[in-house]
User: Which sequence fits this backbone?
């Protein structure tokens, strides 16, 4: 009889362990469902940071959805709609607040094209995308007076600006004029003849320190990609 009682107790313990394991398994399944389907965890507030024109109205489809179903893939359509967006990150503040942080590509130049009867003005971004837009940071001013303009012109302008940003310069004080053949610039009284608008990153490296010193008031003319002559008092 003692042997039978001992066997029955062991069976009870095994059954109880099985029950606990099964209950824990069910708990793991039901817990995420609770967070996903519970009305307590629904998006009610959206805060958008980092953009001057994108706001919570661009994310109306997120409202009343579970805050836990919002992930990086949820924002991919916005990248296609706005190529100026470099990255989107988000934070969840339970139970119902979503914070969206948007980073745009740097604006590098405002380009005015005078070749048509109705001049156009666009903003050029670091990723080479351009569109009509309000300025959100200091940029170089570029004016095109005649054509044609090579396909790589915008890329050269981006290279020029990104190189000059390594120096202590006021980028907004730089103006460039392209006449279809040559590029000329002005920075606080310094006239710069870049010759053809090619290899502008190298030319910017060569002239950056001169502009940074603010001791030159005259004309600078490039004779090659990395050397120039000047009438400035350096």
Assistant:
């Amino acid at each position: 009889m003692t042997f039978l009682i001992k066997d029955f107790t062991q069976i009870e313990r095994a059954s109880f362990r099985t029950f606990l394991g099964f209950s824990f398994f069910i708990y793991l399944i039901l817990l995420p469902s609770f967070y996903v389907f519970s009305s307590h965890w629904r998006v009610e507030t959206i805060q958008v940071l980092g953009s001057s024109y994108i706001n919570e109205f661009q994310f109306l489809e997120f409202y009343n959805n579970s805050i836990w179903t919002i992930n990086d893939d949820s924002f991919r359509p916005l990248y296609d709609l706005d190529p100026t967006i470099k990255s989107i990150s988000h934070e969840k503040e339970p139970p119902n607040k979503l914070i969206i942080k948007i980073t745009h590509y740097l604006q590098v130049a405002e380009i005015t094209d005078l070749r048509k009867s109705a001049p156009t003005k666009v903003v050029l971004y670091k990723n080479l995308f351009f569109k009509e837009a309000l300025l959100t940071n200091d940029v170089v001013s570029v004016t095109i007076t005649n054509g044609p303009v090579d396909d790589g012109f915008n890329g050269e302008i981006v290279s020029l600006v990104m190189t000059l940003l390594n120096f202590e310069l006021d980028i907004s004080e730089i103006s460039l004029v392209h006449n279809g053949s040559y590029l000329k610039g002005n920075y606080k009284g310094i006239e710069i003849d870049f010759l053809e608008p090619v290899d502008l990153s190298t030319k910017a490296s060569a002239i950056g320190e001169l502009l940074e010193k603010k001791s030159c008031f005259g004309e600078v003319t490039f004779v090659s990609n990395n050397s120039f002559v000047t009438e400035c008092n350096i």
